[in-house]
Amino acid sequence: MTISTEESDIIKSILQHCDDGTTDMQPELMRNPVTTYTDPEVLAREVETLFRKFPIIMGHSEQLPEPASYFTNDELGVPILVTRNNDGVVKAFMNVCRHRGARLTDSECGKSKTFSCPYHKWTYDLNGNLRGLPQAAGFGDIDKKALGLVELPAFERFGLIWVRPSAGDEPLDFDAWIAPMEEQLTSLGLDNHTVFRTWSLDREMNWHLALEGFQESYHFCGAHENTACSAYLDNQSVWTNKYPHVRHSVPLPKVVELKDKAPQDWVHRPYFMTQNYIFPCNYVQVMTDHVYIHTIIPTGVDTCIFKCMMLIPESPETEKAERYWEKNYDVIRTVFNEDFVIGENIQKGLNTGANTEFLFGRYEIGLHLGTKAIQDALAGRLTA
Prior knowledge:
It is a single chain. The protein has 9 helices and 20 strands. By secondary structure, the protein is α+β, with helices and mostly antiparallel strands. The strands form 5 sheets. Strands 13-19-18-17-16-15-14 form a 7-stranded antiparallel sheet, with helices on both faces. It has a 5-stranded antiparallel sheet with strand order 6-3-4-5-10, with no helix packed on it. The two termini are 33 Å apart. The mean pLDDT is 96.
């Protein structure tokens, strides 16, 4: 197993922190106004920018196993149809007929070589082209080429499927946008993983509160005293700024074993949980032997959807393997619920006036980096 220069540097940093009793720190505190979590106008700007102009992970390549397979997504407030065409290329469209706006399909997933509107049977192929309409003479000499489905930018990289939820005329250089995380995502081999579980939860809190649970480890031994606390070093993380993305390396206690090994014999993954923030709303959370893909979507100023997909290296072929992965699934659900209960209680107190701003400590580095990227995007300084 090879180790990258970046991962070797992460190990050196954490071993030094262990010796010195320190952790990564920002130069100063950051203050974030509570209106970030309560103002409907702030949310409207976030939806228009963060959730329309940037690519968002929609699924895993396994969910489109062959041409004509498809899945749909409505959780972003945009009806989206994602399919694989006959050339094996992933395509995404508005799930909206160009005649009178009916949804082409209500199914969550399936397989179909064409998509026909249930209202008047206008029919489209896997590339979104309008192929036929009943009694076409009644529409004269309309240009069928101009009435194809509205296509959305879609990309398949690292075994994951990404879609920008708006058409627009702005070009999107996906490879340049994801380049800071390319080495890390490539190393995971997610295209060879399989989906073990997917789930979606409606939570009564602003989407930032759900996002922020992944952006610092300061809370681990408070919120997760009887669960995750003992599994990791207390508030000793290493942060790698991949602007606008962030790599957050959370060490297991056994990382100190590497002090007695030569650097050329080091391995990284068995000693860390890595929480990769993929701007604006995704996390690729890397455990020692499996991976979670998280997506956090606002549905209101005080509500959000938390989506999760658990990826494992291969399908379980024995009852023992099934029990092992099921146990991991149960553990992560328990830990996340601890965060969600706290987040929903925070939301209940936001409108009391007790706080006008929140303090982000110097070691809550993910909050600093993530907030700056969001502010840059809202101000037009960051584009995909």
